[in-house]
Amino acid sequence: MTWSFQSRTQDRIKWLAAERDINANPDMVARTAIERNDVVVPVAQDRIKWLAAERDINANPDMVARTAIERNDVVVPVAQDRIKWLAAKRDINANPDMVAGTAIERNDVTDRLAQDTIKERAAKRDINANMVARTAIERNGVTDRFAQNRIMQHAASVEAFSNAIRGLGERFRQEGGRGR
Predict the structure, then answer these.
(1) How far apart, in whole angstroms, are the C-alpha atoms of residue 82 and residue 89?
(2) How far apart are the C-alpha atoms of 50 and 42, rounded to whole Å?
(3) CA 150 to centroid of chain Cα atoms
(4) pTM for this one?
(5) How far apart are CA 85 and CA 42, in angstroms?
(6) If pLDDT is split at 50, 70 and 90, which confidence band does 3 have?
């Protein structure tokens, strides 16, 4: 099937209008935006579904990936994996008490690389909250050696920065709060 320039332009306008609707209305599901704007290109429909599910994840901290995927009929596996990863990442960032395993299970993250990045992110978050590297690694189930090394390097950087700040504070106190 060949499309003319005009029909491709019309399809693009429909796609953009549906994306606009998704971004403007947090209650609108992908299906409604697709039908409302007569989006017929399958790739555009898939992208709108993906966008709507990501919007739902970002807008609602209680929503799990499965709900956003089902609500917007996301069928592309790569898009589903991305939404699951985003939801787990959001959970880790929003809840300092949540361990990586809980975020992974809660959002059904099955992709191994995505699981590893969530575990590393959670461990680094814990280190930023003054947790010892080994404890953060164990608490979040980080088994990848390279990730463990990056986490320990992160801990060393956080500690070095903290020591530098303490040193400046001490110097400031010793000088009686005066600048040079």
Answers:
(1) 10
(2) 12
(3) 19
(4) 0.83
(5) 24
(6) low
120, with CB counted inside 10 A (0-12, 13-18, 19+), is buried
Q: Helix axis angle, 77-94 relative to 42-59, nearest 10°?
A: 10
User: Which runs of consecutive H residues, i.e. helices, occur in the chain?
Assistant: 5-24, 30-36, 42-59, 65-71, 77-94, 100-106, 112-128, 133-139, 145-174
Give residue-wise pLDDT tens across range 44-95.
999 999 999 999 999 998 999 999 999 999 999 999 999 999 999 999 999 9
Is 43 within 8 Å of 61 (Cβ atoms)? no
Give the mean pLDDT of the chain.
93
CB atoms within 10 A of CB 37: 19
